[in-house]
Amino acid sequence: MGKVLMQPRNHSCLFCAIVAGHVPCHAVYEDAHLLAFLDHQPLNPGHDLVVPKRHEPDFHRLAAALYGALMQLAHRLGKCLAHLYQPPKVGLFVIGFHVPHVHVHVVPLYAMTDMSAEAFERAQRTSPAVAVLVDSAEQIRQALAVMRVYPD
Fold it and tell me: What CA–CA distance (Å, rounded) separates 36 from 30?
């Protein structure tokens, strides 16, 4: 996935550094305005983050068109994760306390406890092997490409 630098950028923001290519990620989707990548400390396998490339701490301050594009991509990723991982539910949430840059979590969910404070704390203490993240990202990219060719 290529680098597109969008201004304004916050030099202390982790997601701005990822967008700029200064911090590596396992990208699953990128366009001129959005980047989606695997969470390196996932709640469950396939846990993705969708971020606007332009720095903005608060989702309610995004331009309506960008907010719509962000949610449309989260919706596509949700369909993709439902197909690949077959969870009972796919969750979508926006929190933003750990990294003050708008980001939407799209997560395969198997139980209500997958979204608990304990689950977040457990995820912060673990990371999957890089090979697992590389493989997952490739599977998601391929599934998204098929979805683009054969939409709903």
Answer: 6
| CA diameter of the chain | 40
How confident is the model over 18-60, as pLDDT tens digits?
999 999 999 999 999 999 999 999 999 999 999 999 999 999 9
- The answer to whether residue 150 scores a pLDDT higher than 70 is no
Name the burial class of residue 38, with classes exposed (0-12), middle (13-18) and buried (19+) by CB atoms within 10 angstroms of its CB. Answer: buried
Give 16-65 as a 3 state SS string: HHHHHCCCCCCEEEECCCEEEEECCCCCCCCCEEEEECCCCCCHHHCCHH
Angle CA 61–64–68, to nearest 5: 115
**β 104-109/48-52 pair status:** antiparallel
What is the pTM (predicted TM-score) of this model?
A: 0.89
In the numeric block, the tokens 């597109």 are attached to: 4
